[in-house]
Design goal:
This protein has two helices and five strands. The chain has helices spanning 31-51, 76-100, and strands at 2-9, 12-19, 56-59, 65-69, 104-110.
Length: 111
């Protein structure tokens, strides 16, 4: 199962962690994993292109884990763009959950 953790500080996304595998199909043909991966990596690429900075990312070399931490030293413009893009990413993940909730869980925490 894919587990998504969203941490917020003052109602703003500060961390996004995605780990695990959906196991909804054979390796290489798992559409849920492919969908989540596409959404997450597309969101990261959007941050780089549209917010104008490289986010702090940790990931496993063999897949199945990525953690994005929002830097605390962003300009106001970078912060606003980052939040908008991450909220869009979260909506996309929740859309996948609506159809494939047996393979993916989302947990949100205010820290």
């Amino acid at each position: 199962m894919i587990q998504v953790l969203i941490e917020r500080r003052d109602h703003r996304v500060s961390l996004l962690e995605v780990k695990g595998h959906a196991e909804s199909g054979p390796y290489g043909y798992d559409l849920v994993c492919a969908g989540v991966s596409s959404v997450v990596f597309g969101g990261i690429n959007a941050l780089i292109e549209l917010a104008g900075y490289e986010p702090d990312i940790d990931q496993a070399a063999d897949g199945g884990y990525i953690r994005l931490t929002v830097p605390s030293n962003l300009t106001e413009t970078e912060r606003e763009r980052t939040q908008l893009l991450l909220e869009g990413l979260i909506i996309s993940i929740k859309t996948i959950v609506a159809s494939y909730g047996e393979h993916i869980q989302v947990r949100e925490e205010e820290v």
